[in-house]
Amino acid sequence: MPVESINGRGATRNATPTRFNLPERLVEGEWLDSVEALDGVPQRRTSVTIEVPRSILTRNNSPDIGFDRSVNAFRGCEHGCVYCFARPTHAFHDLSPGVDFESRLFVKTNAAQLLHAALSRPGYECAPIAMGTNTDPYQPIEERFRVTRSLIELLVETRHPFSITTKSDRVLRDLDLLAPAAELGIVAVAISVTSLDPAISRTLEPRAPSGRKRIAAIKALNDAGVPCHVAIAPVIPQITDHELEAIVEAAAGAGARGGFYLPVRLPHEVAPLFRAWLDTHHPDRAGKVMATIRSLRGGKDNDPNFFSRMRGQGPWAYLLRTRFELAARKHGLPAAKFPLRRDLFRPPEGAQMRLL
Q1: Which of the four pLDDT bands, split at 50, 70 and 90, describes residue 19?
Q2: More confident of the two residues 175 and 91
Q3: How many other C-beta atoms can be found within 10 angstroms of the C-beta atom of residue 50?
Q4: What CA–CA distance (Å, rounded) separates 74 from 142?
């Protein structure tokens, strides 16, 4: 792998994935240790590979998730959020869940065609499709490839219910599609706001829009009639939890239709990546942060069990829940709900979509 600077990235390392019995990559030569200190080390550039999958709908039967199908237009995410629970998926492709995840991206340019085929199948039963459940549908490369927009065009054309979760105000670009979908009652948006502090966001999620921009996007969507909620996700003890009440207040002031929060999750390779990030950016409290996370997760770095993975357990989980409920009650922010109509769905006609 070329020697490149990772300044401006979320992950501080690019460890070799080993979970799928892949051969370990060996890099020989102590010169690599010193070349990073030399001037002129190039910044790592983002690369994009066109992926041609054979299917696009991902199904799940998780009892603690409010949808049973999702669409992900991209693999990897340039936002670089160090805590992202989707990072381990890159290991399956012999790429690191570290810097590779945020710089070696894959785009599914045929996503709309595959979804068209899926919705056209005889016996297809309509239920809301979730977008943004794995990687962000409005990460920077969407500006160039417009895959998410092509999916929304199809969903609006067929009057199929869908939800969007994103960290980007780029979602406002598609207001011309989302507003008519909202009039039909087939769309809901959740914008994730982790921190309102630029200093925290700069290292925690370095290539995502600022928290204030996301709050402004919540207001713009709701002003346009598109139901938009706030997702305070994740809440990281000792790093962002002190902002919980401020985010609730800001989101409620922006007209958020509802809100929810999720404690940080550190599955598989995310835990060592997060520990390395703490050692780099918050060495003074790294031990305290991890001790609190383990308290939330039953003494481990991560709890994969249904329901408890979303809420946490123990005194810290109780404290977070109580604080969120009190703040939501104070500022009039109801619990997020996504009632979407299913009765309007009409399958695509023929090989091509109808003209709007």
Answers
A1: low
A2: 175
A3: 10
A4: 9
Q: CA-to-CA distance for 171 and 149, rounded, in angstroms? A: 9
Joined together, the tokens standing for residue 342 give 């299913």
Q: What is the pLDDT of residue 349?
A: 80
CA distance 299 to 48: 39
Contacts from 220-224 at CB under 8 Å and sequence distance 24+?
220/169, 220/172, 220/175, 221/171, 221/172, 221/175, 221/178, 221/189, 221/191, 222/254, 222/255, 222/256, 222/257, 223/255, 224/175, 224/178, 224/179, 224/182
Q: What is the CATH number of domain 31-331?
A: 3.20.20
> What's the pTM value of the predicted model, to 2 decimals?
0.88
Q: Where are the domains of the chain?
A: 31-331
Predicted confidence (pLDDT) per residue in 202-221, tens digit: 999 999 999 999 999 999 99
Q: pLDDT tens digits, residue range 316-346?
A: 999 999 999 999 999 999 999 999 999 999 9
What's the rounded Cα separation, in Å, for the pair 111 and 130? 14
pLDDT(65) > 70 = yes
Q: Are strands 74-75 and 104-108 parallel, antiparallel or unpaired?
A: antiparallel
